[in-house]
User: Which sequence fits this backbone?
């Protein structure tokens, strides 16, 4: 089905929120690229004018410092529904109200300096509680950002979807060590070499990366990277997919640690949906 029309003002807000975490999500759309460029220029002028906002996973620009790196990152410090979280005490939440309608399409693999991102073709979407969200991209964290009862998985995947209203729904899938995964292998082989901008992935089916069964955790949260915008409906699948230790090691060679620590749950509850 076609990607829904997104009103321009809302789209600009949405792109601003995603500009840092998922700049490459917009590469399918040159108009969106122009918006991103304008947004980055605006950030330049508001900042010290010398360099782009820089954040990382360690040291002076690591997660504990994100909120003070720039006023636009304030939610990282003072937000009330931040992600990721430790999934404990989930309450039975009844039916899933989640329908995943992903389809094969040509994709591109990008290294955005924080992770490996796969930008997908238009046409994949989900319905969540009766609302439509279009799949834009998915990317990887090592170790997993969400943890369950204190335990992290070796990696996780975040499938980023956007609604016409500008908010996001992200599906998290844990990756556990086991057999090698052929879909992951095809992505790793398409990671651009240094100096290349993007690798091509023909007729890639993101559904190949979904675990068996639709059981998942659901809670309201945020982007897990600056600006930590609190616009995400999180769906974390209870079942994991298997990848080989060699596949984890290959990612670790590029990004040995790109996971934000878990954040306080505060007033939220986590629902378990079947
Ligand atoms: Zn992520």
Assistant:
């Amino acid at each position: 089905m076609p990607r829904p029309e997104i009103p321009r003002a809302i789209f600009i807000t949405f792109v601003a929120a995603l500009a840092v975490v998922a700049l490459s999500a917009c590469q399918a759309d040159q108009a969106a690229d122009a918006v991103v460029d304008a947004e980055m220029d605006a950030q330049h002028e508001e900042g010290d004018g010398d360099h782009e906002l820089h954040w990382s996973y360690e040291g002076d620009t690591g997660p504990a410092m994100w909120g003070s790196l720039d006023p636009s990152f304030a939610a990282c410090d003072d937000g009330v529904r931040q992600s990721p979280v430790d999934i404990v005490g989930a309450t039975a939440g009844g039916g899933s109200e989640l329908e995943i309608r992903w389809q094969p399409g040509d994709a591109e693999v990008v290294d955005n300096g924080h992770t490996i991102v796969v930008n997908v073709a238009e046409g994949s979407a989900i319905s969540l509680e009766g609302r439509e969200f279009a799949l834009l991209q998915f990317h990887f964290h090592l170790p997993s950002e969400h943890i369950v009862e204190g335990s992290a998985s070796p990696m996780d995947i975040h499938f980023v979807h956007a609604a016409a209203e500008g908010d996001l729904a992200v599906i998290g899938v844990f990756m556990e060590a086991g057999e090698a995964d052929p879909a992951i292998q095809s992505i790793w082989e398409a990671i651009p070499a240094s100096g290349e901008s993007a690798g091509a992935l023909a007729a890639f089916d993101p559904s190949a990366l979904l675990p068996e069964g639709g059981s998942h955790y659901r809670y309201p949260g945020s982007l897990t990277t600056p600006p930590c915008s609190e616009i995400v409906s999180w769906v974390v699948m209870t079942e994991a997919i298997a990848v080989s230790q060699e596949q984890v090691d290959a990612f670790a060679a590029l990004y040995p640690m790109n996971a934000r620590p878990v954040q306080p749950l505060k007033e939220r509850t986590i629902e378990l949906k079947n």
User: Anything to note?
Assistant: Residues 8-50 have pLDDT under 50 and may be disordered. The pocket of zinc ion is lined by residues 139, 141, 158, 224 (CB under 6 Å). The radius of gyration is 18 Å. Helices lie at 8-18, 30-46, 66-69, 75-78, 182-190, 245-254.
